[in-house]
Design brief:
It is built from twelve helices and six strands. It is mainly alpha-helical. The protein has a two-stranded antiparallel ribbon with strand order 1-2. A hairpin with a 5-residue loop joins strand 5 and strand 6. Helix 1 (2-13) packs antiparallel against helix 3 (25-50), helix 5 runs antiparallel to helix 6 (106-115) and helix 8 (169-191) crosses helix 12. The protein is globular.
């Protein structure tokens, strides 16, 4: 609960919902209160689900719901955005049909729908579906270790060990690490813009009313590439991101196994 209050204050004061000076003290307090109440509701619902009033883990269920909502919205969002080349739909699928219907050059329109910059595109959607399929496939992998009873002769059983037996905990911890790093970097960039050390941590650009995105520093190299063309243009960014993701998830997996008492010696 303390973390929820702290992050709510930081999010508002760093300008995530607009400049605090423009919003006013009253609006800022209302936003902070709304975020705190929302966090409290999630914690209470998780407690209910953990007590057996529902299916599975509460936090995992909320994460899955948020991911599904994000995928559906990024695919079929009817919101329009002026990108400088004209008005485009935010949803990748709707934008695909809109671009093909309005562009005279269909081949160029298809390439634009597949790899458009700073907005959801079909390559993002297809990559997400591919990753979902791979994860679901490997999630079913397991090794059955034979166990022989020392007290009863002839009694055998098996203990199944999943390939992903740390579940989604490493990804949750890695996402929390990156999210807090982004918040701290944006807060420092807002307060101390132009500082060399703050610039090494992260430099931020504006999407034009839709939030900020990293354009330099550690936060840039810890953020995912936007498209295949971006990977080709800046392969160092892609390599750094992959190494950071694999290294941090491996570290959190090992740490979680030791902390939770799931290691081989336990």
């Amino acid at each position: 609960m303390i973390i929820t209050v702290g992050q709510s204050i930081v999010y508002v004061m760093t300008g995530m919902y607009g400049a605090p000076a423009d919003l006013g003290a009253g609006i800022c307090m209302l936003i902070i209160l709304q975020l705190v109440i929302a966090g409290l509701i999630v914690l209470l619902l998780d407690e209910l689900l953990q007590k057996g009033y529902g299916l599975g883990s509460g936090i995992s269920l909320f994460i899955a719901t948020n991911i599904c909502e994000t995928i559906v919205w990024k695919s079929f969002s009817p919101a329009t955005i002026n990108t400088g080349r004209g008005t485009e739909f935010e949803g990748a699928v709707i934008a695909f049909f809109h671009i093909l219907a309005t562009r005279p050059d269909k081949v160029r329109g298809l390439k634009e729908a597949l790899n458009r910059q700073n907005l959801p595109n079909l390559m993002n959607l297809m990559a997400t579906i591919l990753v979902f399929g791979i994860v679901i496939y490997f999630q079913g992998f397991r090794v059955d270790l034979p166990i022989k009873s020392a007290k009863f002769r002839g009694q055998y059983s098996s203990y199944p060990i999943k390939l992903f037996y740390t579940s989604n905990i490493p990804i949750i911890l890695q996402s929390a690490l990156v999210s807090n790093l982004y918040v701290i970097s944006q807060m420092l960039a807002t307060r101390f813009s132009g500082n060399f050390i703050v610039g090494l941590l992260g430099q931020w650009g504006d999407y034009g009313g839709r939030g900020s995105y990293p354009i330099g520093g550690l936060c840039y190299y810890f953020s995912p590439p936007e498209s295949m063309s971006h990977i080709i243009e800046d392969p160092i960014h892609a390599v750094c991101y992959i190494l950071f993701m694999l290294g941090s998830c491996a570290f959190f997996s090992k740490t979680w196994i030791e902390v939770s008492g799931s290691s081989a010696r336990d």
